[in-house]
Structure formats: structure tokens, C-alpha cells
Amino acid sequence: MLRATGVSRSYGDERVFRDLTIDVDAGEVVAVIGPSGVGKTTLLRTLALSLEPDEGTVTLDGTDAWAVDESARLALRRRVGMVFQEASLFGGSVARNVEYGLRVRRSWSERIASLFRLSGAADAVHESLEVVGLADKTDQPADSLSGGEAQRVSFARALAYDPDALLLDEPTSDLDPRNTAVIEEAIGEAKARGIGVVVATHDMHQAERVADRVAVLLDDGITEIGPTEEIFDDPADERTRKFISGELVY
Amino acid sequence: MPLEPVAQLAPALLDSGAGPAASLLGASFREGYVGSIIAVSLYVSLTAVALSTLVSVPAAVAIGLAEFPGKGFVKSVVNTGMGFPSVVVGLVVLFAVSNQGPLGSLELIFTREAMIMSQFVLATPPITAISLAAVSGVDDGVRDAARVLGGTRIDVALVVIKEAKYGIATAVLAGFGRAVSEVGSVLIVGGNITSADGISKTRTLTTAIQLEARQGRYETAMVLGAVLVALVLTVNAIVVRFGDRGVA
Chain A partners of B145 at a C-beta cutoff of 8 Å? Predict the structure, then answer.
């Protein structure tokens, strides 16, 4: 479904990764593990079609996102959701935040009408907030939420418009165990809905808990990608084995 | 110095520019002199600030969101504009609208429209600069979120404007403050004129204060000054109230 093939990306003279290939299918969870600063966020932004790769292709259901015009790319981008490490909620109520992705997909006349009411989106907003256990916070100001609640709203915001793929960048790195568990349950719910999920994490236990496949991103590329059990129990690559066992320290 | 009620100051204001028609003005002052000055001040300043806001805020958002070579230089130019001497702006506008100027055919000299032009030029740099600072202060994460959630460039800009609304409101207030308190340029391009019946044509609160003070009528000048301060406070309160209501 969502696939990056042979992608490379640099910032100025600094190469982040090169010749990297990764894919996720509908209803599958792929975890990208690796040390901090290795390029997991850049990879996710590339998959989210926010960053153009220097080389390689990113395709969604076979359509090369960077070979089409901007409006077609926007249509592709709107089939992908992303949750950042920081919740980055907008001002206004929780409902307004969760409704955002739905609102920008409407016509301008519908959007003006929605300034005064949550027209037609109330069910989707409520349903998404239920997934993260915050259905009772709909009308609460977003800036009054705790960090964990804000991150859960951020997840609901991306889930509300029912994307084909959902990209999660260290979604639980700042959260307590309770909020972490809620997010991991929500990942399971997204998978059950047929959404392909890519979650970047440095928490290998979390990758083991939620992922069907694991990609190990070390240095400037993926050293290995495969079924979760295989990566953790019997890695083929020596660097993967050392990283997972803790012998390879960054 | 005790302040007299404005109505009792009529004699002091009657000969403040009306000339030979002064004898006709006893009732006119009470009926409309001060009111007409306030009306002209508000009309000129609010129109100039509204037009400037329409230009400045989109410009600030465009500059703030875009990455281009020379962005720092553009910001410096905008900031420098906040220090434009108002008298020089008045001179430039006077030249533009004079008979020999490029806008001479429009016959704008000594009109409210010319005053709006000069106040527009004066209000635009502070509104742009302060809005730009507010827009630049919006968390990058918010912009990224708006984009990855499917927003177009316009959607992202709208989110940024909403997040920066208090800073933008401050910018508009600063622009209004500069416009309504301006003396030099409106005096040059407006001429501080009242009609024969004493009603202001291009006289504003500031130019009236300047005239009264110069002629030694300090009580009158101070009352008009108090009116000016009250106006600024009222507009400030309205804008702040408007900003608070926009939170939800």
C-alpha cells in the first residue's frame, strides 16, 4: 500500500539515510526502531509525503507521489495521517482539533458553516475520541489537557478522517505507562480498521508488543526488516543483533 | 489647571480656524464641532488601519511561512519602516497628491483620503513587523500538524493566523495607535481644515490639540487630549474583547 523504494535524503551536506526501502500494507503495523538521531523522523516525514526524497520513490497504492502534480499529491497526502512526538494541538476545543482533518477536506461553503457547528463530523469526532478514551473531553479547551491527554487527542485527530496509513513518530516517548497503554490499544484499533501503521520508536519492548514487522534503522539505512519475532529472536544482520542485545551503543 | 466641560469651552474653539464665520458658530460647536473632529479622526485612522491590516497580515504570514534568500533583509526593511519620520511620509504623500504629483489628477490634496494614504503608510510597517514576529513565534509543530493532517497552504496560513491572533491584534492596535496619534503628516496632507460652520473637514483630534495648544488654550487642548486617550482605550478594549471571543 504505502511504500518507499530506494529513498535517500540529506540536509545540506549531511546525509540522513540512503537507498532505504520500507513498506506497510493495510491492517499491518510496522515498527521502525533505531537510536535517537538516526533519521526515523525524516523517514516518517518522507512517507507522509511532507519531504521529497533526494532519490527513490514513495508510492501509495502504486502511484508515485512525486511524479504527479501538486493537487494529486495533496489527494495522496490526505490518505496518510501522522502523529508527532509532541502533540502540537491547535488552540480551541478538543473537538475542533479532532475535526480539523475532516474540515480541510470539505468545500469552503461547508467549512464556513462548520465554524458555527460540528456539522456532520460529530460522530467521527466522538468515535475517534472514544478510541483514545477521551469522549468526555470533547468541549474542553485543548490547552487544558495534560501531556498524555494531548497526545491521545493528537492520535484521535489523525484517526478521525480514516486514513489508509498512519505514521506515528515516537508517540509515547513522553508518556506515563497508563497513557502509553491507551495509545498502544489505539494502534491495535487502527490496525483492526485496516489502517497500515508505521510507528517509529526507540522502545524495543513497545515494538515487540505492537508490531507485525520490525525495521531496524542504523547509521544511514535499514539493516534489516522482517517479522517481529524473527528480528528479536534470530536477527540475520550482525549489527541488528548487537543493537538489540545492547552491545551496539550510540 | 481645572478642566472645564467641553461645551463650556465653545468660545475657545470657535475661532480655531473658522475665521470670519466665527460669529455663526455658537450653536454649531455644541452641536457638532468636537463630534466632527472625533468622527474625522476615527474615520481616517480606522480606514487606514483596516486597509493596512488587509495588506500587512497576509504579507506577514507570507514572509513568515516562506523560506527564501534575503528573508532577513526583508525583515530588516520592515522593522526599519517602523521608524519612518511621519513628517517625511506626509511630504511624500503631499508630493504624490499635489497637482504636479503622479496622483494629482485625483485632486486628493487636503482631503481625508490623502490623510488615509499617509496614515496607511505609517501604520503598515508596525502592523507588518509585529504580525511577522507573532507569526514567526507560532510553533513549527503546529504548522507541521496542519500540513500532515491534509491542510493546503491556505489552511496552514489560517491555522497560523489563528494561533498568532493575540500578536496580530497587538499589531493592529499598535498601528491604530500610531495612526490616531499622528500629527505631522496629517497636518501636511490634510491641512487641518474646518468648514464655514465649524464642522471638521480634515481636522483631527491631534491637529486640533496642536492648534489649541499653540494658541494658548490649554484647557481645550487637554480636554481633546483626554478624548483622544479615551478613544484609544475604547478601541483597545474592543479589540481585546474581540480576540478573547475568538478563542473557542
Answer: 84, 88-90, 154, 157
Residues of B in contact with A74 (CB under 8 A): 150, 152
Partner A contacted by B150 (CB < 8 A): yes
Q: Minimal CA–CA distance to A20: which of A8, A3, A30?
A: A8
- pLDDT tens figures, A45-57: 999 999 999 999 9
> What string of H, E and C letters represents the secondary structure of chain A?
CEEEEEEEEEECCEEEEEEEEEEECCCCEEEEECCCCCCHHHHHHHHCCCCCCCEEEEEECCEECCCCCHHHHHHHHCCEEEECCCCCCCCCEHHHHHHHHHHCCCCHHHHHHHCCCCCCCHHHHHHHHHHCCCHHHCCCEHHHCCHHHHHHHHHHHHHCCCCCEEEEECCCCCCCHHHHHHHHHHHHHHHHCCCEEEEEECCHHHHHHHCCEEEEEECCEEEEEEEHHHHHHCCCCHHHHHHHHCCCCC
Domains and CATH numbers, chain B: 31-245 (1.10.3720.10)
| DSSP per-residue codes, B214-225 | HTT-HHHHHHHH
ipTM of the complex, rounded to two decimals: 0.85
DSSP reduced 3-state for B194 = strand
* pLDDT grade for A106, boundaries at 50, 70 and 90: confident
Residue numbers in A near B146 (CB within 8 A): 90, 100
Cβ contact, residue pair A82, B248, below 8 Å? no
Q: Do B148 and A74 touch (CB under 8 A)?
A: no
Q: State the smallest CA–CA distance between residue B150 and chain A in angstroms.
A: 5
Nearest CA to CA, how far is A178 from chain B (Å)? 24
Residue of A nearest to B162 (CA): A91
Q: Which residues of B touch A78 (CB under 8 A)?
A: 150
Residue A116 — very low, low, confident or very high, per pLDDT cuts 50/70/90?
Answer: low
Q: Which domains does chain A have, with CATH numbers?
A: 2-245 (3.40.50.300)
B166: which chain A residues are within 8 Å (Cβ-Cβ)?
none
